[in-house]
Amino acid sequence: MQRRPTLADVADRAGVSRALVSIVMRDVAGASDSTRERVRRAAEEIGYSPDPRARRLRQHRTKLVGMTFAAAQEFHADLVDGVYVAAEKLGYDVVLSAVTPHRDEPRALRTLLDDRCEGLVLIGSQLPARRLAELAERVPVVVVTRRVRGVDAVRSDDVAGAVTGVEHLLELGHRRIHYLDGGRAPGAAERLRGYRRAVAAAQVSELISPGGLTEREGAAAAAEMLDRGDLPEAVFAFNDRCALGVMDVLIRAGVQVPQQVSVLGFDDSPLAGLAHIALTTLRQDSAGLAAAAMERLVDRLDGTGGAAAGAVDIVRVPTLVVRSSTAPRSA
């Protein structure tokens, strides 16, 4: 494998001392303009670039933020992008560690801690609250999409979002609104609570069954509805992926969406806005959530939110995005 060029290589190429190359690369006083130009040209010619990790070690700071996320969750990808943008503005780099069916969250966390990350952003963490509190005593932690007592959290108001979704369907005249629950996923208990609150206020009956997080689980729930022969007027799915599975099965079975059954999701994933899908959904402010998480973490690391400060719970309210998968109830 080809050796990475060093300061000494640049010095040899430019015909100057290694110390002078270091001055130029650190952009500090002590070198003339012509020398700086010669050194930078030599560095470019041999493909030299400074090692950021070495620089961080000299500073006794890594300036690295570790982030865990579920590789299968589309909304998590939006949050990851937002954290990258926010971290760059704040002078930090991000190290990703994915949670997959073959790589659990504790393993993902160990990788980040081994890389000397100064703080952690945990997207959709499913670790026990006690474990997260213990982790936060060792290293600054911000949990995204979930509220955890004693740990900094940034999340959507899932209760309010679910209430808004149900109220939208009620305004369209729907009374038999079937909710597909998200099980133990972060935010699932709150969305279920919001659904129950809204249907109780409207004095209509609850219709709840397991849904899940994926298209496959949504498809299974829709197939069960078809087997019973008792379709609801509207389906409110835990997330967009689940809603897409519902739509696929209903349409394949000849059920018109939304003429016969309205379908509502949650998240506003990229697929939801495609013209042939046009899913009505609750939009989470991924960019705002990501920026708030990074700002809080940096406050812990650099600013006013030190270790002695109490945990905060930062909440953003989802907004309804109406597309063509919901419509007024047929007469």
UniProtKB/TrEMBL annotation:
InterPro entries: HTH_LacI, LacI/GalR-like_sensor, Lambda_DNA-bd_dom_sf, Peripla_BP_I. It comes from the Bacteria. The keyword Transcription regulation applies. Residues 5-59 form the HTH lacI-type domain. PROSITE patterns: HTH_LACI_2 (PS50932). It comes from Mycolicibacterium iranicum (Mycobacterium iranicum). PANTHER family: HTH-TYPE TRANSCRIPTIONAL REGULATOR GALS (PTHR30146:SF109), LACI-RELATED TRANSCRIPTIONAL REPRESSOR (PTHR30146). One of its GO terms (molecular function) is DNA-binding transcription factor activity. Keywords: DNA-binding, Transcription, Transcription regulation. This is DNA-binding LacI/PurR family transcriptional regulator.
